[in-house]
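DM from R.C. (forwarded with permission)

"hey, sorry to bug you on a friday — could you get me a structure for this? deadline for the figure draft is monday and I only need the backbone to look sensible"
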Amino acid sequence: MFGKALLATALAALAMASAPPLLAQTLLTGDRIDGTPVIDRLDSRDLAAGQVHRFWFRVTDNAVGQGWYVPVIVVRGARPGPRLLLTAAIHGDELNGVAVIHRLVERIDPAVLSGTIVAVPGLNTPGLLHHSRAFTPGDGRDGDNLNRLMPGKADATDRGDRYAFRLWSRLLFPNADTAIDLHTQSRGTAYPIYAFAGSPRARAIAELIAPDMIKLDPGVQGSVETEMLRAGVPAITLELNRPEMFDAGVIGRAVDGIARVMVDLKMLAPGSAPAASVTPFVGDSLATVRGTRGGYATLLVGLGDAVVKGQLVATIADPFGRVVERLDAPVDGRVSSIATDPLRDPGDTLMRILFLAPQGTKSRAAPRRP
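My reply, with the result:
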């Protein structure tokens, strides 16, 4: 009697283990936009293998009772493997990452892919519509920095927090084993290809991408990268030059770099990505060069240039062209960001210099990003 009961229990357990889930985690709303299905939640493991899937994710309502939607592309490989999350344009004027995702998805054949790419080429729909860095729905109020609000709050009165919560909890975090958040510098400034890395594994990912520079950085609260790291998901922020443009050279380097990460993750076969041609400069601190006079700034060094302490790196001139201030590098290092607008108020940043602080000394780090 006992044996029969045990056998029955075992058979029932086997049947449950082999049966499909009672409730799929990807929730289709039944709506379509220009023929593309709309989802309310994504679990990429639900989707058919060996295919590319495209969705609109309805994040939340806007003020006229319609939806804010973000595009989602899922490349589900024919073979099992890790999930690589790629996100772009959490700041609405930072566009190179959108093109990186488009080009990478076009390049990857799901038939030879192990694992899944979950790509969101445009997280900040209001910001994109307003050509704005901030989350700017358009009622005249200042927008939130969406990359300081993760993982958001479900019951917040602030709309940015609610938007962030829906993105994080129903789209981003549940679909990430490794994450790369794609950015550029802000309006009026430029980076080289530049990675922020907050853990040893994150640094290894950054080195595979082979940017011009890597900043070893503890991160900032509320960013996609930092909150992923806190939740145990290896993640980096990858900065791709300047905003409001598609830079073909930068985009191509980023696509190749992400492909090398995918080879390392065993998502692609060895030899599927070109070898890196750049050895990144690695630092952990930033020194800021600021003017004390207003006027027209001329930078005497460029992005990525090596500088030495005391070297003349910029001048500021008055409206007649007379130099009113000369600015020297405060440290030895590499130029990691520059102002692209010559018009400078007193106290404005002209450039930042990445350097490796001596052990045991306090870093003179500027904020990691505006």
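R.C.: lifesaver. The CA atoms of residues 74 and 96 lie 19 Å apart.
me: no worries. The two ends are 72 Å apart (CA to CA).
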